[in-house]
Design brief:
alpha/beta; Rossmann fold; 6 helices; disordered N terminus
Length: 152
């Protein structure tokens, strides 16, 4: 394997293989939730540049558990998950005092204006439509990460 393939393999193992990657630093903690490994990897690449610590979940129940336990600075949430929908997840997050104020960005294939409105009303802070450019995701998450650094 070449360097790029080795890096991709190492990243896949650290995110998907272990499920959780944590360190004892003051870096922003981001929970990425998607049932597709390739989408998780894309989110992980977007989080490398701002030097975030990543938590990864492949379903809604795991996402809720990780959010309650670690209280990340930001959640990137797919809407179509195998067990709970992203809307159900964000609804439960908003009802729990431990997670109610965590910013949630919906990452979804729903592209209509009414879909965006439905997600915002459900409790998401923002929205990005798949497929997206890596630069667009980075630009979208940056204000949330900047405010997390100011607060902590």
């Amino acid at each position: 394997m070449g360097y790029l393939e080795d890096s991709f393999y190492d990243l896949r193992q650290s995110i998907v293989g272990s499920g959780i990657q944590l360190s004892q630093s003051s870096r922003p903690l981001v929970l990425a939730v998607d049932d597709d490994e390739d989408n998780l990897l894309l989110m992980a690449y977007a989080l490398e540049q701002p030097n975030c610590t990543l938590l990864a979940a492949k379903d809604g129940k795991s996402a809720l558990s990780l959010a309650q336990t670690y209280q990340p600075n930001l959640i990137l949430l797919d809407i179509l998950l195998p067990d709970l929908s992203g809307i159900e997840v964000v609804s439960q997050l908003r009802q729990d005092p431990r997670t109610a104020k965590i910013p949630v960005i919906a990452v979804t294939a729903f592209a209509k204006p009414e879909d965006r409105e439905r997600l915002i009303v459900a409790g998401c802070n923002d929205y990005i439509c798949k497929p997206y450019l890596l630069e667009d995701l980075e630009a979208l998450i940056q204000p949330y990460l900047s405010s997390a650094l100011i607060i902590s």
